[in-house]
Amino acid sequence: MDKSKRKFINICLGGVAALAATAFAAVTYPVFRYYLIPPTDKNSGGKTSVPLNEIALGDAKFFEFNGVAAVLVRKQDGSLAALSAVCPHLGCIVQWEKDRQDFLCPCHAGYFTADGAVISGPPPRALAKIPFSLANGVVTIG
Amino acid sequence: MMEFLGKIYNWIDVRLGTHEIITEKRTGYLLPRNVNAWYSLGSVLLVIFCLQIITGMLLMLYYVPDIDKAFDSVSFIMTEIPLGRLVRLFHAVGSSMMLLVLLLHMFSILFMGSYKSPRELHWLTGFFLLLLAMGISLTGYLLPWNQLSFWATTVATDCASSIPFIGENLVELLRGGKQVGIHTLGRFYTLHVGLLPALIAVLIGVHLFLIQRTGVSTPPFGLEDTSNQWKGESFVYEEHPGGIPFFPNFFLQK
Ligand code: HEM
Ligand code: FES
């Protein structure tokens, strides 16, 4: 086979390869998006309101905030704290221990105060604070 | 009956030359004289994988991948189905055994230096098989949807968040949401019974192909004499006046 014929065929093959790659990308991108984006909560990014009388003194209320677990604590002295309930160690959800007035992480026994500060255990930092405001007996978080 | 089977065999042999392949595999695949028990671990792994496929399909008959039903369906398998407990424990214990044997397999290869040239690709495919086996174990562990599996999956997927920049997104991609939930179960179920078994099966095929191309390695210890005394190509009466060695004669080391 002479050189020019070979060159021509190679160019054609290159074109076919490029076309195939484009087609592959065109097919995989929707598949990737299908996998990537699950239907998230409708209220993600929004605010959450909790009437204060729903929480007794010394109690805590768990809710979902931006798609992750969060908690509102009403301490014995009446003050409030809104915290992320996701443990900063490896991401388990902490539990409120009413009798001890602290948070316990079930995974590796991290303890936190009602304000989210680390008492003991592996967590490297405090539970993240979430801003909130109180008006007319309703707590608005976010 | 035998005659009929023989006819079928001949029919195939005439067309595909199967007799030649079988003879070649039985007599042409050489083993060093000093192979040891560690060389059997690969076959052990193959058996465990087959058992996992069989018990896994049996579990699929009753398992329901839904966060409200998964735990109950597994309890149902354990308590109501005849031998269900056995099947499930075979599958659960089998997965631990698979990883244990995989590690032993890798360590024996490491210590005997069997990974050296020309067998680097064997090690590479084996390494990916280890990763896939860990992946299939992780995804399977979530399926019973009990406390242990839920928190273990939370912790395991959270590890990816320590990767700089893309960590958080990666965790969300793995979980199909910000937290372990129904989409995590769906994803893990699909990976566990679909994609990962298929990938493992293909990679096992590649691994075995490589091994039969190069033959197994010669261990650095064992019998002194490792020279090849195979006479497989000259199995004729003149060379064996005392009789023709029986198969599997290679087990006779002297
Ligand atoms: C190398 C292969 C495999 C490994 C290491 C493996 C591992 C596991 C593990 C660790 C579990 C959780 C066990 C438990 O606590 O119950 C599990 C569950 C399960 N696996 Fe597999 N698996 C494998 C292959 C398969 C295959 C091929 C299928 C289906 C075709 C399958 C179907 C299932 C199902 C339906 C469950 C949930 C039932 C249950 O939790 O008992 N597995 N697997
Ligand atoms: S995940 Fe909370 S202590 Fe480890």
Question: Can you put this structure into words, describing what you see?
Answer:
The complex is a heterodimer of chains A (about 140) and B (about 250). With about 140 residues, chain A is of the alpha+beta class. Chain A has one helix at about 5-35; strands at about 50, 60-65, 70-75, 80-85, 95, 100-105, 110, 120, 130-135, 140. Chain A has two domains: about 1-40; about 45-140, Rieske Iron-sulfur Protein (3-layer Sandwich), CATH 2.102.10.10. Chain A is built from one helix and ten strands, in the order H-E-E-E-E-E-E-E-E-E-E. The radius of gyration of chain A is 27 Å and the shape is elongated. Chain B is mainly α and about 250 residues long. Chain B contains nine helices and no strands. Chain B has helices at about 1-15, 20-30, 40-60, 70-80, 85-110, 120-140, 145-160, 165-175, 180-215. Classes of the chains: A alpha+beta (about 140), B mainly alpha (about 250). The interface of A and B includes residues 67, 92, 93 and 106 of A. FE2/S2 (inorganic) cluster binds near residues 87, 89, 91, 108 and 122 of chain A. FE2/S2 (inorganic) cluster (FES) binds near residues 90, 92 and 108 of chain A.
What CATH calls the topology of chain B is Cytochrome Bc1 Complex, Chain C
In the CATH hierarchy, what is the superfamily of chain B? Cytochrome Bc1 Complex, Chain C
Number of helices of chain A: 1
Q: How much beta of chain B, percentage-wise?
A: under 5%
Give the percentage of residues in beta strands of chain A: 25-35%
Which runs of chain A of at least 5 residues are low in confidence (pLDDT < 50)? none
Bound small molecules, deduplicated: protoporphyrin IX containing FE, FE2/S2 (inorganic) cluster
* Class from secondary-structure proportions of chain A: alpha+beta
* CATH architecture assignment of the largest domain in chain A: 3-layer Sandwich
Biggest sheet: strand arrangement of chain A: 5-6-7-8
Average of the residue pLDDT scores of chain A: 89
* SSE pattern of chain A: HEEEEEEEEEE
| Greatest interface | A-B, 14 and 16 residues
Overall structural domain count of chain A: 2
Tally the structural domains of chain B.
Answer: 1
The first-level CATH class name of the largest domain in chain A: Mainly Beta
Low-pLDDT residue intervals, each spanning 5 or more residues of chain B: none
Oligomeric state, counting identical vs distinct chains: heterodimer
- In CATH, what is the class of chain B? Mainly Alpha
Shape of chain A: elongated
